[in-house]
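Hi all, long-time lurker, first post. I run a small reading group and we've been trying to get comfortable going from sequence to structure in the token notation. Rather than ask abstract questions, I figured I'd post a concrete chain and ask someone more experienced to write out its structure so we can walk through it together at our next meeting. Sequence below, copied exactly:
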Amino acid sequence: MLGEAKDLSVKHIMRMDRFGHERIDSPICDWLQKHPHVKIIDIKFSTAAYEGGVIKNALIIYRKEG
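-- Answer (accepted) --
Happy to help. Here is the structure in token form:
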């Protein structure tokens, strides 16, 4: 069971990329390594193009354990 919404937290990670080479997986992995006591509920990804490049977003939905 997921529990109540008040038990959930979110972390937003954003990368602006002018050349299409900036990866979003590295900052996600870094955050997860620094927060080993969380239960990941979901990770949502989005990408938006703009005239100067790309914006990559990740929204980590999690619950603190213990």
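A couple of things your group might point at:
The two ends are 16 Å apart (CA to CA).
Residues 5-64 form one domain.
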